[in-house]
Every structure is written in C-alpha cells, then in structure tokens.
Amino acid sequence: MDFGQIVTLWTARVSAFVYLMALILLMRHAARRARVLWTIGLIVYLIHVWFAFTYFYDWSHETAYRETARQTASLFGVDWGGGLYLNYLFTLVWSLDCLWWWSKEASYQARNRWVKMSTHAFLAFMFLNATIVVWVLKWR
Questions:
Q1: Where are the chain's structural domains?
Q2: C-alpha angle with apex 123: 10 to 59, nearest 5 degrees?
Q3: FRET label pair with 127: which of 97, 103, 117, 133, CA 20 to 30 Å apart?
C-alpha cells in the first residue's frame, strides 16, 4: 500500500471513529465536548477528501464520478456514479451542521427534532455505507 492509500484510508477511519465518539458524548449530554469532537471529525474528514482527490482522482470530478460508478457496478451491478453527489451532500450537511453549532449554539440546540434526527440519520447512513463499501471492496 502506498502513502496516498494509507493516508486516505486512515483519515477516513479516524474521522469515523471521532464521529462515533462525538455521538456517544451527545447521548451522554456532554454537548460542549461533543461539539469539539464533531469539529475534529469534520476536519479529519475534509483532509480525507483532500487526500482522495489528490491521490486517486487528480482533482477531477469526472474521474471521481467514473470511479464511483465502477465501484457501484462492481458491488451492485449498476454502472452509476451518482453516489458521488451523495458524498458531496454529506460534506455540505456535516459542514453546515458544524458551522451552525459554532455560530448559533442556542438556535442549534433548539432546532426541530426532525431536523436533528434527519441530519444524524443521513450522516450515519453515509458513514455506515462507506464503511461497508470499503470493507467489501477490500475483501473481494
């Protein structure tokens, strides 16, 4: 495994681990510590995206789309790269959520339960999906 593969893989793992720790702190009502981990997880995730685009996609959306389509076809038999847009949405949702939490904490804490649950459900789905996809591709 070369440097690009190692750092891309490990930043994804660290980001997922920190995300999970932030969720545990949220469940324990330790919001201030959770917010710090939430932010660290996001930063590590953004570093992961940077490494992925640097070492795997040559900063090309088209290349990333084709690779996503190839992996989707390999796993599910469907040549579709649209999952890349879900990754972009994941990045946007987590980033906006984090910014909201830091900029308007009272508003963030008082947000609608539906907004809170939808955000967490989407982020968790994406983390779980990415983990399963990487695991399946690794062991094929």
A1: 3-139
A2: 55
A3: 103
- Gyration radius of the chain over CA positions: 16
**pLDDT (tens place) for every residue of the chain, 140 residues total:** 899 999 999 999 999 999 999 999 999 999 999 999 999 999 999 999 999 999 999 999 999 999 999 988 988 899 999 999 999 999 999 999 999 999 999 999 999 999 999 999 999 999 998 887 777 666 65
User: Is the alpha carbon torsion for 62, 83, 90, 43 positive or negative?
Assistant: negative
Statement: the pTM of the whole predicted model exceeds 0.90:
yes
Instruction: Please write down the HEC assignment for all residues of the chain.
Output: CCHHHHHHHHHHHHHHHHHHHHHHHHHCCCHHHHHHHHHHHHHHHHHHHHHHHHHCCCCCHHHHHHHHHHHHHHHHCCCCCCHHHHHHHHHHHHHHHHHHHHHCHHHHHCCCHHHHHHHHHHHHHHHHHHHHHHHHHHHC
CA distance 47 to 123: 17
